[in-house]
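Subject: Sanity check before I submit

Could someone independently write out the structure tokens for this chain? I want to compare against mine line by line before I put it in a report. The sequence has 249 residues.
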Amino acid sequence: MIPSTALPGLNWALVVPMANEADDFAPFIRELYKALEQLHSGKVYLVVDTVSRDRTLELCEKLSAQDARFVTVWSPENKNLAEAYQRGYREAWNGGHKFILEMDAGLSHDPAALPKFLEALAQGTECAWGSRFIPGGVLQNATAKRRLFSRGGTLLANLLLGTSLHDMTSGYQGFPRHIVALFKDVPLKSSAHFYQTELRYLLRKHSCVEIPIVYKTPSPRLAAGSIINSISCLLYYTWRRFTMRAESL
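---
Independent answer below. Compare away.
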């Protein structure tokens, strides 16, 4: 790995969808500040859409007015979570950044792990995937149901899709801009959290590394719509795989 002392000055960006984050906004931004100061570089694209009903947009716009490192992306046209991520990737890609990462808000993902992802990308890795299920990775505050869904989802996806990652459902990840160009405008099948699995599958032919992360589960609730969408997308890609029409990017 490239030592972290060689990272300052890299042209990188972070994409963070923000929805109803007013309560956790201040502590989350404080931790992001620490990471940006450590690296002496970086820009953060905060994507807000109509799902957010609290003061999140106002807080993001105020922060952007005070600090040019934070860009508020108002995206009312988003229909789902996957489109929010893609909008953020397009904004960051259009900004000319060499490396583009994504993470969840609310401190479910720890900004202190950002240097690990940048180290991997700086040495030539095309896909840096966050993993809770390798040495150093942790899944905190998760109910038995959430643990079963995360681990079981990974095992099932690997079995049906022919992949071999330790974590197929994590949302902490990063890519160089030529990889982002492959998926930023592609209509995806997923509308919710299966987006993470879908990307891992579609980008399976590119070099990758798994980065250990600590994930703090924000809520024990699993939305029924998200589960249904995940099953539907998984069956679609499984069918395509076994009918010799498997997609890849």
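---
OP: Matches mine. For the report I'm noting this point. The helical segments are 25-39, 56-66, 81-94, 114-122, 144-161, 177-183, 194-202, 224-242.
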